[in-house]
Design goal:
Elements: E1 9-12, E2 16-19, E3 23-24, H1 30-43, E4 47-49, H2 57-69, E5 79-84, H3 91-105, E6 112-115, H4 152-165, E7 171-174, H5 178-187, E8 194-198, H6 206-215, E9 218-222, H7 246-255, H8 259-269, E10 273-274, H9 281-288, H10 297-304, H11 315-323
Parallel strand pairs: 3-4, 4-5, 5-6, 6-7, 7-8, 8-9, 9-10
Antiparallel strand pairs: 1-2
Length: about 325
C-alpha cells in the first residue's frame, strides 16, 4: 500500500503540521500498546494521540522508542499529543503532570499538550495513584468525583509557561464548546492551537468547526467513527453505529471502499484531523488508506445530513451515572 498520509496535514500555529490521520490510543490495553504503536509507525502513522488518563503512556513510549531506534522515522517526523488530566488543573500541578508524561513516553518534548476536559477535580498526588482517574477516593464506600473550582485562566497560564519552556511545542484544549473558547481567547497570551472534540456524522458540530476555522484553531475529531468504542461501556447501543447507515454503505459500494474509510474521508475532507483507534493490523491499514479517493459534494452533503447531535462521550451523563456527580459541560 502506498502511504500518502504524510502529504495531508493541518496547519497548527505558525509552524506546526498536524497529520490528518492519527492513531487514537484510548482503550488500547497496556499489554498491546507498545506493539500497536510500533506497528502503526511502521505502516506510516505519524500522529499519535495519547493521554495520562489512558494509563498506557509508558507502553506507548516503548513502541515509539523501538520505531525510532530502528530508524523507521525520526522524532521530528512524529506528532505526539498528550493531555493534562482533570486533577492537575491548579497551576502548580501542570508542569509536574507533563514531566511525568514525558518520562513515561521517553520523550524530550510533546508536539501538543491539551487540557483534557474543562473539568477541574480535587488533586490526587502521583505517589498516591497514577493515573488518578475520575473518583477522588475509590476505596471508600461513598467514593465520588470531587470538583475543585480552579479558574481556567490559572490552568491556561501554566500551559502557556510549558510552551515557553520548550517542553511542549503547542498547547490546546479538548471537549470545549464555543463559549469556553471565546472566554479563553479573551485573555490567552498564546491562543489554543488545536481543539479536540468528539465529531462524526451523527455529531458533525458544523458551527464549532466553522468557529475554529475562522479563529485559526485546528480541529481534531476523536471517536470519528462514532459509537464503536462506547458500546462496551454501555454508553451506546450496537444500533447506534453510523457505519450501518444505508447512505454510507451505498457510497462505500460505489467507491470500492469500506464504510469506515468513507466516514473517515468525510472527516478529513471537511477540514478536520481524525484519530480512529484500532489494535488490528488490517483495520490500522484501512484507516490510514484514505488518500486515493475523494468524495464528491453530493456525497459529502448526504453524510453531513446524518447529523442528529448525538453525543456519546458526555460528562453531563456519565459523570452522574458512574461517578456520583452531575457535571454538564456542553449545556
Amino acid at each position: 500500500m502506498e502511504n500518502k498520509q504524510e502529504n495531508s496535514w493541518l496547519q497548527v500555529g505558525s509552524n506546526g503540521r498536524l497529520p490528518t490521520v492519527g492513531l487514537g490510543l484510548w482503550k488500547i490495553p497496556e499489554d498491546d500498546a507498545a506493539d500497536v504503536v510500533y506497528q502503526a509507525i511502521a505502516m506510516g502513522y505519524r500522529h499519535l494521540d495519547s493521554a495520562c488518563d489512558y494509563g498506557n503512556e509508558r507502553q506507548v513510549g516503548e513502541g515509539i522508542r523501538r520505531a525510532l531506534e530502528e530508524g523507521i522515522c525520526t522524532r521530528q517526523q512524529l506528532w505526539v499529543t498528550s493531555k493534562l488530566w482533570n486533577t492537575y488543573h491548579r497551576g502548580e500541578h501542570v508542569r509536574p503532570a507533563v514531566e511525568r508524561t514525558l518520562r513515561d513516553l521517553g520523550l524530550e518534548y510533546l508536539d501538543l499538550y491539551l487540557i483534557h476536559f474543562p473539568i477541574a477535580l480535587r488533586y490526587v498526588p502521583m505517589e498516591q495513584r497514577y493515573p488518578p482517574g475520575w473518583v477522588y477516593n475509590p476505596d471508600q464506600p461513598d467514593a465520588r468525583m470531587e470538583p475543585d473550582p480552579v479558574p481556567l485562566q490559572e490552568t491556561w497560564q501554566a500551559m502557556e509557561a510549558l510552551q515557553r519552556s520548550g517542553m511542549v511545542r503547542h498547547i490546546g484544549v479538548s471537549n470545549f464548546n464555543c463559549s469556553l473558547l471565546q472566554d479563553l481567547l479573551s485573555y490567552a497570551e498564546i491562543k489554543p492551537a488545536v481543539l479536540q472534540v468528539e465529531s462524526h456524522p451523527y455529531l458533525a458540530q458544523p458551527r464549532l468547526l466553522r468557529f475554529c476555522q475562522e479563529q485559526g484553531i485546528a480541529f481534531t475529531a476523536f471517536s470519528p467513527l462514532g459509537a464503536g468504542s462506547y458500546v462496551p461501556l454501555g454508553m451506546a447501543a450496537p444500533g447506534d453505529s453510523v457505519l450501518q447507515e444505508p447512505v454510507i454503505g451505498k457510497i462505500a459500494q460505489e467507491l470500492g471502499k469500506t464504510p469506515a474509510q468513507v466516514v473517515l474521508r468525510w472527516g478529513v475532507q471537511r477540514g478536520t484531523a481524525v484519530i480512529p483507534k484500532s489494535v488490528h493490523e488490517a483495520r490500522l491499514r484501512e484507516n490510514l488508506n484514505l488518500f486515493d479517493f475523494k468524495l464528491i459534494d453530493e456525497q459529502m452533503e448526504a453524510i453531513s445530513a446524518l447529523d442528529r447531535n448525538r453525543r456519546f462521550n458526555d460528562p453531563g451523563v456519565f459523570c452522574e451515572q458512574a461517578f456520583g456527580c452531575f457535571y454538564p459541560i456542553f449545556d
